[in-house]
Specification:
Layout (H helix, E strand, L loop, with lengths): L2 E4 L4 E4 L10 E7 L2 E6 L4 E5 L7 E2 L8 E7 L7 E6 L12 E6 L7 E6 L2 E7 L2 E9 L4 E4 L7 E4 L16
Antiparallel strand pairs: 1-2, 3-4, 4-5, 5-6, 7-8, 8-9, 9-10, 11-12, 12-13, 13-14
Length: 171
């Protein structure tokens, strides 16, 4: 069951929303009262704008088999990024799509960017919004320091990096 976190009390409260009932949820992201999650089936994003009290499906979702992670720009929550998986084919001749979908209009339109890889997670440096880490299913860990213009593979060759976290005091 999804839960709502109360930052003033430090307590998680179980919540219910019919849109989330009997769903496997993944790819969570949050900024202030904005909460985003992806439903496992067909990567549909649901969002809450009231800290998880109610949810709605966004009208335009990035096309993906799965949305594994969602990051929200700390300075502008209309900028959102999703680590995506387009297909379950691991044949390099079939899977040649960028692993990140990004929107600058709160999900109305999406464009695809980043390395061609199965996306696992995204982490934005809280001290520098241009620095983003992107972990992949089999291509390691990538980093951009210029807001998606260029990427460096910092953990290379056939490595699964499931998740990424940044220490804001040591980024």
């Amino acid at each position: 069951q999804p839960a709502q976190y109360n930052s003033s009390t430090g307590v998680w409260n179980i919540m219910f929303d019919p849109l989330l009932d009997n769903q496997i949820l993944m790819g969570m992201g949050a900024q202030d009262d904005l909460v985003l999650m992806s439903r496992f089936v067909n990567g549909k994003i649901v969002l809450s704008q009231d800290a998880g009290l109610t949810y709605a499906e966004i009208n335009n979702n990035p096309i993906a088999s799965e949305i594994r992670s969602i990051a929200v720009d700390q300075s502008d929550n209309s900028n959102m990024y999703a680590a995506i998986q387009h297909s379950y084919s691991f044949d390099p001749t079939v899977y040649q799509y960028p692993g990140i979908a990004k929107t600058s209009d709160a999900g109305i339109t999406w464009e695809y960017t980043g390395p061609e890889a199965h996306g696992m997670s995204l982490a934005m440096d809280p001290n520098d919004p241009e620095t983003i880490y992107f972990s992949t299913f089999s291509d390691g860990l990538f980093k951009t320091e210029d807001g998606f213009a260029t990427w460096t593979n910092i953990r290379t060759s056939n490595k699964l990096v499931f998740d990424v976290s940044i220490n804001p005091e040591d980024s």
